[in-house]
Design goal:
two-stranded antiparallel sheet, about 15% strand, 3-methyladenine DNA Glycosylase II, Chain A, domain 3, about 425 residues, Alpha-Beta Plaits
Length: about 425
Amino acid sequence: MTMVQETAKQILALLPGVDCGGFGGCGCPTCQACAEAIAEGARVNLCPAAGQDAVDALAKIMGVEPVEVEKKIAFIKCAGSSAGKERFSGCESCDAAKASGFEKGECKYGCIGLGTCIERCKFDAMKLEDGEVVIDREKCSGCEACLSGCVQEIIEMIPEDATNFIPCSSKDNEKDTLAICGHGCIGCADCEMACPKGAIEMVYGDKIDGRFAKIDYSKCEGCITCTVKCRKKIIVDTLHNLAEAKETVALVRCTGGSLGHNKLEKAGFETCQEVVDSKADLDSMDVCAYSCAGFGDCTKVCRYDAIKVEYGIAKVDPEKCVGCGDCYRACPRNKIEMVPYIGVKQAACESEADPERRMEVCYMGCIGCGDCADNCPNGAIEMVNGHPEIDHEKCVNCGVCKYVCSRGLLAERVVPEYNYLQREALSAEN
């Protein structure tokens, strides 16, 4: 046995020893070939699945300086089910599914979900659950074999200790992404502009206005900034609670929709969009023309169970709401507004009807008396078309408006102390 062969034997004993079938990051067909390559002078960290202890031992065998190993694991940059997963379920592989083509309304950049990549993994770190490829971080060795098994090229190797992730690879523009997937990056670049370390860049696609965000982990420090600033709230953050780390929450600009909703239901309407499309004369139906229709089009798009219809009106749970704005975009009557998640007052009515008419169609709405505006010591409230609009920059949450409102309309956002601390930290980051 030659010296190289003897050395290769020692090296092989230190490698994981699970042949990746030639698909691993070392580029060798077998672990034996990888060991021989190292014995002949290749870098001692040639095998990406070898840990620090193994690489240190290899360096000692080869008589070279120790090399620092950055352990990486696989991450799938897709969190949705819009790439035709259900339709493709009968295909034999992801490659075959992609070759058959995507249909209108399907994401051509997402995970197909047939698990072709799983066949490449020899460490039992990947499995298929309900059409979703799940990676076991503890089992993943970082061998990189799964990368070449993904026809969509959406698997990325990330540092084992990474805490922030952007699970989307769509390069469609904002309009198309919103129409296809609730979990998709819309390419707004808010995260890129907000990141204090310049760790996020926008990757462009086929369309001029199509792009998605990508994290440079060599710069990322795992702060809260991108999580808070993400409009769609799709950035996964393992250090912070997404429901707490937010700047805005949804507010339904209506306080009482049960009377109108019941009449719309009896008229045969089933969705809010139908009410809008019908162009029905709501006034003749004794329905407030400015109210929430109450059929819950908004609830169908909420990924966080933060909005529900109660007694014919949509209501938001501010503790669950993460401020993604999906309900805001889904409301065909434009009754939802994104407001600051700070302890200020909110006016949940925007009726422009005469006060008498308001009383006839809704017993809970604003009557446009203007007492709140007249008594606000900071001039934070202005009457616009007969309803109050609050300037949140001026509001100091003194409580005067709530005290003088005879209708009990002005609601207060009660915000826990940790939110103020997070906002202060975020401000310091920038």
